[in-house]
Design goal:
This protein is mainly beta. It has 7 helices and 39 strands. Bound molecules: (dicuprio-$l^{3}-sulfanyl)-sulfanyl-copper, dinuclear copper ion and calcium ion (CA).
């Protein structure tokens, strides 16, 4: 979460006059601070700082026997590493990392021409960006469940969205959102709001968190800044439209009927400092009327901003006074909310309070009534607003009517029943909506359950991304790992199953049944326009100073045992792996030329470099492939 320091800042403890940050909350904040600073005293590196708490009794077995396969996939945001992690669950074993925004040395991501094209380069051919900060990951839907086509992940730093093909588990497109800074939440739509035949994802919604001058210019008066909510086409990955709003966006959720997309908003104040951003008692959860927005775009009721050609419709308060024509509904929710999640019964959106100890339940049907002019007061769309604990952030569901919300300050998961909360809110104070609490280690942010935000929520496993691990793992110097914990939610009581250390910094993830994806393990030669389909096509082809080297691999040899180029040549080397057996991957490295990449079965990849160092260079296979792997080489001779 990006708000860690804000929540932990001692100055926030001075907010006692507010209803939501009461004395208990201040105590909670203080505990939070103390807990965070109270690291174990320097322990000898050879001993764990403290014995771990005994594991809870019962719960599913997470220790698979050798050779056993997991039953769920998890797609995890990698954080600073700018990639997507693929886990098997319940074991928690990391199976794969899919590079997206940041170079990756194993596959040659950011090295090959093909990956550089996806990542984006500057005029000099170098990568435009080499840092990223991935937060949220979600997958495409059909009929309310994942369909195994795509997943998406965001880069908050450079406002990029990457698409992952779930047939090959590779990133194939990256789009940068125009006029957006701090691109945070993403969520695909679950069907089309008007065309009943389109029961699958065709749009991905993206929330812009930081307000900026539009178009960007050195304007100091921050009251003039605004944010944009963007819609990206799931197929073309082009930005279809944007909505100009008051305040900001944060997380994103979508309704199962395709009609509404939602963002929580913590900066209704449009402040530039955190004190200003938390000065109001309530902020908002926004609902975007997708069909109306697209009708407005079609009718030409939009403007464009700066050099961008993307249509921008006006979703500000001023332009949306009449519900019957409104593009956006601003539902008031308590102080600096974080996280908005759609319940699998398709009825509710849950918005967590963060600086308020409450979760707010908003009924979808009532928001739609308001858009139709049938609900006068939008506040009446709130059917529950109940206290659950300190620092509520994200919510997951078990498909049995229960919600699971992370409590950052309390270091807990609270399990609560949505219908009971609604009864309690309606005045039935005997309705016990809190079902269970579980201590987690420590300061949890994201949470998700198996199949949570689908109509097939199965209530088996819950994973939680803890922002701190403190004493749960062997000390490794000042940078502590963070802790992802797995919890069994199949019974009434939550049971903690496992701890997994994770490199910074854990964010959002989804967990789904393994049979929902059908990965292919061998490429087709036709997937690559440059493929060299026959090793006889190999050779060195010169066009002035531009030289193309065409090569194939077939264990244990490259088709060219040697090739010659001249100093100063611009060399493009194309390599097709003609091995078509599953798991027979080769690598290709050129010493001193900063080249290393792999080619999977029937994959083609290319690199371009200037042959600026004369001499002999043993290009060699970097991926163990054969008993003669070490002998698998090609000799590049660069003539002076
Ligand atoms: S945010 S810890 Cu970047 Cu997903 Cu809530
Ligand atoms: Cu080819 Cu190792
Ligand atoms: Ca606020």
């Amino acid at each position: 979460m990006s708000d860690k320091t804000e929540v932990l800042n001692p100055e926030t403890a001075g907010m006692g006059r507010r209803r939501f940050i009461n004395t208990a909350a201040i105590a909670g904040l203080t505990v939070g601070i103390a807990a965070c600073n109270d690291k174990p005293a320097a322990a000898p590196a050879t001993t764990p700082a403290a014995p771990a708490a005994p594991a809870a009794k019962g719960g599913a077995n997470v220790h698979l026997k050798p050779g056993e396969l997991d039953t769920y996939y998890g797609l995890w945001s990698g954080g600073h590493t700018g990639d997507m992690r693929v886990l098997g669950l319940p074991s928690g074993r990391e199976i794969h990392r899919i590079p997206c925004f940041v170079p990756d040395a194993l596959v040659g991501w950011g090295v090959t021409n093909e990956s550089k094209k996806v990542m984006g380069t500057k005029a000099d051919g170098n990568l435009r960006y080499t840092v990223a900060d991935t937060h949220h990951t979600h997958a495409s839907y059909k009929d309310g469940n994942y369909d195994g086509r795509y997943a998406w992940i965001n880069d908050k730093i450079n406002s990029r969205i990457a698409r992952i093909r779930l047939d090959y588990f590779v990133c194939d497109k990256i789009t940068q959102l125009p006029n957006v800074q701090g691109f945070h939440g993403i969520f695909p739509d679950k069907r089309d709001p008007v065309d009943a035949a389109i029961n699958y994802t065709t749009r991905v919604f993206c929330g812009g968190e930081f307000s900026i001058p539009l178009p960007n210019a050195p304007i100091e008066d921050h009251t003039k800044y605004r944010s944009l909510f963007s819609c990206v086409d799931a197929e073309t990955m082009e930005v279809r439209w944007q909505v100009l709003i008051d305040g900001n966006c944060d997380l994103v959720a979508t309704s199962f009927d395709g009609k509404l997309a939602a963002t929580n908003q913590y900066n209704t104040e449009m402040g530039a400092k955190y004190e200003d951003m938390m000065s109001a008692e309530r902020d908002a959860c926004l609902f975007y009327n997708v069909a109306r927005i697209e009708a407005a775009v079609k009718a030409g009721k939009f403007k464009t901003i700066g050099a961008s050609k993307v249509p921008v419709v006006d979703g500000t308060h001023e332009a949306n006074k009449d519900p019957k024509t409104s593009l956006v509904a601003y539902v008031s929710v308590p102080k600096n909310p974080h996280g908005v999640n759609a319940s699998p019964d398709q009825k509710y959106f849950i918005c967590a309070g963060k600086l308020s100890p409450t979760v707010t339940t908003i009924e979808l049907a009532k928001v739609l009534d308001w858009f139709d002019g049938k609900l006068e007061n939008l506040d009446d769309a709130i059917v529950a607003e109940v206290e659950v604990g300190l620092g509520p952030l994200h919510t997951a569901f078990d498909g049995r009517g229960n919600a699971y919300t992370t409590l950052f300050l309390d270091s807990q998961i609270v399990k609560w029943n949505v219908e009971a909360a609604i009864k309690f809110h309606a005045g039935d104070k005997s309705a016990k909506y809190v079902v269970d609490r579980l201590d987690v280690h420590y300061q949890p942010g994201h949470i998700n359950a198996s199949q949570s935000e689908t109509i097939a929520a199965d209530g088996k496993y819950l994973a939680v991304g803890c922002k701190f691990s403190k004493d749960r793992f062997l000390p490794v110097g000042p940078l502590h790992p963070e802790n992802e914990q797995l919890i069994d939610i199949s019974g009434d009581k939550m049971v903690l199953l496992a701890d997994h250390p994770v490199r910074g910094e854990p964010h959002d993830f989804i967990i789904f049944k393994r049979d929902l994806v059908k990965p292919k393990q061998v490429y087709s030669l036709d997937d690559f326009p440059l493929a060299i389909k026959d090793s006889k096509e190999s050779g060195v082809f010169r066009n002035g100073k531009k030289v193309t080297v065409k090569m194939t691999s077939l264990a244990p040899a490259f088709s060219l045992r040697e090739f010659k180029v001249k100093k100063g040549d611009e060399v493009t080397l194309i390599l097709t792996n003609l091995d078509k057996i599953e798991d027979l991957t080769h690598g290709f490295a050129i010493p001193n030329y900063n080249v290393n990449f792999i080619v999977n079965p029937l994959e083609t990849a290319s690199v371009t470099f200037i042959a600026d160092q004369p001499g002999v260079f043993w290009c060699y296979c970097t991926h163990f492939c054969h008993a003669l792997h070490l002998e698998m080489r090609s000799r590049m001779i660069v003539e002076a």
